[in-house]
């Protein structure tokens, strides 16, 4: 960008004007004893203008400053191109980027704007920069342009895409908790502060590892079906999928008979007995249920009943054996 500059001097005649970065070319017919108009050369930052006046050995110096860089637009603007591992070329248009290559930096907060977040420069001119977008995540990510001499633009913002869930493997797991793999996209960079949450009150699925397209986490100890899984990446929330805990399985009951008046302590063996399992015999509650730590056996006291081949079930909420 070029500027017309008006310089004023009292009782001096100009014989020429120069600066540290080039010659300020005079506009024809603009010279007088007190004023000259000239077009500035390309440059950046603070320039020392040197005014040489006839019959004076010592030139006159004064400071003149180029404007700070200004960001005007990002292209492409379509949101579908801004995946967290987009690897896309971004065109930034604006003003006063200068000729010398500076830097384009991105960050989710202003304090870390210059910490390993550079957009790899491909081309650089006074009004246009093309660079390769770094991996990242989150909405309203800050961007700024810095020239070589340290002039910094005001902050602009753009957003990466929110996380998307496609599958959970396995979709069912033990009540003791287990590892599940969540596949999808836009899960962000390795150092992203995010959580994978299973909507069971405040319980969460503890993340073990993740990439832009996969998360492995450990489900908490719990029970029942229809639990909502949702991923949050740098404040952006994904769609939801459903995860189910396995239903309890009964293998044996001992003893397998007892008095009709109830009161008989029985031991049931099987799998996925939660610590709050309900046991019924012929539809009636078996009292004083106690589950072992491994959730593979429990004891209870039989209710009043009668007959043979009575149905025994263990259940919690929507899951039953």
Task: Describe the fold and architecture.
0% of the residues lie in helices and 49% in strands. The protein is mostly beta strands and 321 residues long. The protein folds into 4 domains: 4-65, no CATH class; 70-158, Immunoglobulin-like; 164-245, Immunoglobulin-like; 249-320, Immunoglobulins (Immunoglobulin-like), CATH 2.60.40. The chain has an 8-stranded mixed sheet, with no helix packed on it. Strands 7-8-11-10 form a 4-stranded antiparallel sheet, with no helix packed on it. Strand 3 (25-26) and strand 4 form a beta hairpin. The N and C termini lie far apart (77 Å). The model is unreliable at 1-20 (pLDDT under 50).
Summarize the structure.
By secondary structure, the chain is mainly beta.
